[in-house]
From TrEMBL:
Subcellular location field: Membrane
NAD keyword on record: no
Main location: membrane
SMART domains associated with the record: S_TKc (SM00220)
Protein name: non-specific serine/threonine protein kinase
EC primary class: transferase
Reactions listed under catalytic activity: L-seryl-[protein] + ATP = O-phospho-L-seryl-[protein] + ADP + H(+); L-threonyl-[protein] + ATP = O-phospho-L-threonyl-[protein] + ADP + H(+)
PANTHER family reported for this sequence: LEUCINE-RICH REPEAT RECEPTOR PROTEIN KINASE EMS1, PHYTOSULFOKINE RECEPTOR 2
Length: 213
């Protein structure tokens, strides 16, 4: 905890015109899950707009490309890898790009970027919010697994409660956490045809209540 606090304090003092200013950091009680859920909902809305209005595939959805304002509203960033999908097209052919841990499994075989590929990457982001773990953990030994494989293993063993970050694990939030986990697992389905659209994802997330209201 001390090292985290020190790092946050240092970042808050780092102010420069070419740096993103750290607006805040929350580690208080149940507010931590409120904030994570709000971030997930906001990011899903932003991605749904890209997919629907300008027909853009982002191709690099990850936590570091989701910026927060002073109210913790999520804003998607970094469109350097984005591609416009022409009407009636289902994919764009492209080089294998993205960030390790977020790249959909089918991309390495087909080199075809799709909306459902973005959904997979967003599912990994949801897993990060739920677990507090990185998509690919740097570790040693035979038990080292990527986050997606680790989550599927825990589910197969009926040990879902071990998936959640201990800082947000709470009996009052058990139902909501399981709902978001279910959504995330649909997003990271290995078969892209079985993944939901981002419209479905944000609709499901919006049905999950924040706080006690």
């Amino acid at each position: 905890m001390g090292s985290v606090t020190t790092a946050v304090e240092a970042l808050s003092r780092a102010q420069h015109k070419n740096l993103v200013f750290l607006q805040g950091y929350c580690r208080y009680g149940k507010d931590r899950w409120d904030t994570r859920l709000k971030i997930a909902q906001g990011a899903a809305h932003g991605l749904a707009y890209l997919h629907k209005e300008p027909n853009i595939i982002h191709r690099d959805i990850k936590t570091s490309n989701i910026l927060l304002d002073d109210r913790f509203e999520a804003h998607l960033a970094d469109f350097g890898l984005s591609r416009l999908l022409c009407p009636y097209d289902t994919h764009v052919t492209t080089d294998l790009v993205g960030t390790l841990g977020y790249i959909p499994p089918e991309y390495s075989q087909t080199l075809a970027a799709t909306f459902r590929g973005d959904v997979y990457s967003f599912g990994v982001v949801l897993l990060e919010l739920l677990t507090g773990k990185r998509p690919v953990e740097v570790c040693k030994g035979w038990n080292c697994r990527d986050l997606v494989a680790w989550v599927f293993q825990k589910k197969s063993e009926k040990r879902e409660e071990e998936i959640f970050d201990s800082s947000i694990r709470d009996r009052d939030w058990g139902k909501q956490l399981m709902e978001v986990l279910g959504i995330a697992c649909k997003c990271i389905d290995q078969d892209p045809r079985r993944r939901p659209s981002i419209d479905e994802v944000f609709s499901w997330l919006d049905e999950i209540e924040i706080g006690n209201t």
